[in-house]
Structures are given as C-alpha cells and as structure tokens.
Design brief:
Chitinase A, domain 3, elongated, mainly beta, about 30% strand
C-alpha cells in the first residue's frame, strides 16, 4: 500500500501492527528465547484476569506457549454473533506470552475496530472474534502461527517470531461494511479521466492525453448516503491509483486480494490529497481524485514507479467509517 507518506511506510501504531502481513510492519526476523519444551502447550487457566476499569493480565507460569490458538469465553454476551467479514469494535489488552509483558491496550482510550477476517488481521484475533456474541469478554491464547511468526516477529511490540500471545477482548459492537460504493450516480465533468468498474470491483482508469491539472480535483462518481467522514476517524476504502503521465497502475486493493484498506484520515497518515479529499465525504461514495505532486508524495517513490513531479489519479470507494 502506497498511500502513506513516502517517508513513513512503517507501522505507526498498535492497530497497524496487528493487521495482517503486508501492511508495512517494521518487524525484523527474530526468534523466541522461550525455554518451554518444543510441543508443550499452556492452558488459558494459567492466565489471571484482574477486572476493573482497566483490566490487567498476569501469568501464573512463564512462558505461556500454545501450538494452537484457543478461545475462552469469560462473560457471554447477549447480542448477535460476529460474522466473518464484519467490522468489530473491541477493547483489548495484549500480552506477550514469553515474558508476560503487556504489549498494548485500548482501555482508557477508545475501542479499536478490527475486520473479522484472517486475511486482514492477525488470524488469532479473527478466531477470537468470529462466532462470539456482542457483549462478550473473551480470552484468546494466540499461537505463533496465528500471530507474528509469518512476519518474523514484531520489533515495535517487542514480540518475537515464536512467541505466543494472550489477548483479552471485550466485544462492543459489529457491523457489515459495504462491498463497494452504493448510491446515486453522478455524471463527471468533461475532460477528466474516465473510470469503468467491473463486477469484481476492478477499476480501469483512462487518462486523457492532456496536460495534468495543477489543483486537487475531487469528482464524485457515486454519491453515497452513509455517515459523513470526519477527521481522525478510520475509514475503509477500495481504490485504484494510476500515474497521469503513463496511465500505469501503481497501487490497487483489487490486486491485493480485493479487501478494503483501513487507515486514519485527516491526521497525516496518508498523502495530503486523501486527507483533504476524503474528509466530508459520505460512506458509499465513489470518488475520482486527481492529485497534483504537492498534494501527493512530492518526492520519488521508487518501488511504486512514482516520480517527484507525477500527478496521480485515484478512484476510491468509501465502504466504511469508524
């Protein structure tokens, strides 16, 4: 994904670190120093939970190590069961099973929204949420294979590749994002790039053989009727980006498995043109965005084939906001 500023393509927060591999982790391969015999398995009964406004976790024996992810419902909720693919709001505490140290928490802040999909978040987190009822408190023992093993560990969180983890989750709510833009079609102004989107959400952008605009253009193609995107929120979007001068696709969610990408908006985590153009739009909208260099990267991004003076063109479907 190349939407982040070119100078910062690494994970900037815990939420990003817990996303599936490929989202830009700064992790480096490392191995666990666990002394637990190979194949040995801990039980979630070795984890104590101290309840309160900010719950804490502790281990009666270290290290905590599991070969298979396990889930224990501490308090059963009364809401609907979480389904695969939903966006789930949770409060959590994450602990490294190797040393029992807390790796992160949302308590005292605001809940985090995770996709209930092992292709978009660490598989252990998805397994802990799917089929659980809203309102439940769940304790999850996450195996290395369902954690950071495939990413070689995560240095940001201090978790090694072979570390198991323990996660306490309070499942607050869940909803189903839109599959793609939905709303009222809008006829674009003449002279802009044209867009065709097929049934599988593959977008084809045709750039006119004219000089690129020098100002940011945000042209609705479909006007959604959902919630208005506000600065500081996390949005989910499907998109395709091309370079004006060549028409070459340099980034596309369709080519990354088809799943929507999620990121904070209006706070500098993405290129300026996105921060300016997406805030104020409604969920369900499809936007054509023409982004001049000063609103884009304004520098070379070699791995994407983008040059400092390139104008970028995007088609963006806003499918969710939290």
């Amino acid at each position: 994904m190349h939407l982040r500023p070119a100078a910062s393509l690494t994970v900037l927060c815990l939420a990003g670190a817990l996303a599936a591999a490929g989202c830009g982790s700064s992790s480096k391969p490392s191995s666990s120093s666990s002394k637990k015999p190979s194949g040995a398995t801990s039980s979630l009964s070795a984890v104590t939970v101290k309840s309160g406004k900010t719950p804490t976790l502790a281990l009666t024996q270290k290290p905590f190590a599991v070969q298979k992810t396990s889930v224990k419902v501490l308090t059963a909720g009364h809401g609907a069961a979480v389904k695969k693919g939903q966006a789930v709001s949770v409060d959590y505490v994450l602990m490294d099973g190797r040393d029992g140290k807390q790796a992160g928490t949302t308590y005292g802040q605001k809940p985090q929204v995770f996709p209930a999909d092992a292709a978009q978040v660490l598989p252990g987190i998805a397994k802990g949420m799917i089929d659980q009822k809203i309102g439940s408190r769940v304790l999850v023992g996450i195996s290395p294979a369902d954690g950071f093993k495939s990413q070689g560990g995560n240095t940001d969180l201090g978790i090694k590749a072979d570390d198991s983890m323990v996660m306490l989750m309070d499942i607050k709510s869940a909803h189903t994002p839109l599959p793609h833009a939905e709303g009222t079609a809008v006829a674009p102004k003449a002279g802009l790039p044209t867009v065709k989107v097929d049934a599988k959400d593959n977008a084809t952008i045709t750039v006119p053989k004219t000089k690129a605009p020098t100002k940011l253009i945000v042209q609705p193609l479909i006007k959604g009727t959902g919630a208005v995107v506000k600065s500081g929120q996390t949005i989910s979007a499907k998109y395709t980006g091309v370079i004006w001068s060549s028409g070459k696709v340099f980034d596309s969610t369709a080519k990354q498995g088809g799943n929507a990408a999620s990121f904070a908006i209006g706070v500098g985590q993405v290129i300026p043109g996105w921060d300016k153009g997406l805030v104020g739009q409604k969920v369900g909208s499809r936007l054509l965005m023409v982004i001049p260099p000063k609103e884009g990267y304004n520098k070379d991004v070699a791995d994407a084939g983008i040059k400092k003076n390139d104008t970028l063109v995007f088609v963006v479907d806003i499918v969710d906001v939290n």
